[in-house]
């Protein structure tokens, strides 16, 4: 689908096809090799909450030093101070200066605590990006379509806010939630009509259901806005290359759909900063190797 498709043409195409065809023009600057005949190239980000014990300046320095291209900045989930500190002390211009100084791109704000509305203007004025949040409570299988339709309808004001601030809203899958299963991913992409709404896919929660992560990636397709490289294991083994999961098929799948965001190695838990950095370095190298293998068809 043409990246320059305007809003009127988008709505017309969606109405005619009956499917949620979503284009994400801004994402084309985040992933390279998306043109016909070019290989998909992986870009890496990681989340500031991995260094929540450090000020945002030091977290950015650590992440940049590890070779990540972009950052996902967290609000106060589990007490992470970073996004609220940015909002109160740095503001959008200060954040842009901090990221430029460290040669980092802004990929996302994770707004599980506080909500998107609270940070929408900051995200937009800092350059725009993805805001990541959860869905809603679980439902019976026979209620899925109706509940998903209602949920997406409830997000319309947030989608309008995202359009105003040149940003996108990514809904994360989670256990015991509306967005949790392969069927729920399919319902989301079939019903969603907004180019500002998409999915933040957490393989950790896909694995808890013993479901296929590559299949989930393919179901999400162009509506995949955020991808956690995150496995269902204890402690540091949640990270790529530290735990046992072979993520080469995951990288092949994100390449297949020409994912436009960053691949974001992730874990919950807060090891000491040097331990976290060492494990993220392993994850960085491991994902690069998976990408090479996927590109060779291994």
Describe the structure.
Helix 10 links the parallel strand 7 and strand 8. The radius of gyration is 18 Å and the shape is globular. It is of the alpha/beta class. 43% of the residues lie in helices and 12% in strands. It is built from eleven helices and eight strands. It has an eight-stranded parallel sheet with strand order 1-2-3-4-5-6-7-8. It has a single domain, classed as TIM Barrel (Alpha-Beta Barrel), CATH 3.20.20.
**How do the strands line up in the largest sheet?**
1-2-3-4-5-6-7-8
Largest sheet: 8 strands, parallel
Look at the structure and name the CATH superfamily: Divalent-metal-dependent TIM barrel enzymes
Q: Could you say which structural class the secondary elements and strand pairing correspond to?
A: alpha/beta
Approximately how much beta-strand content do the residues carry?
Answer: 5-15%
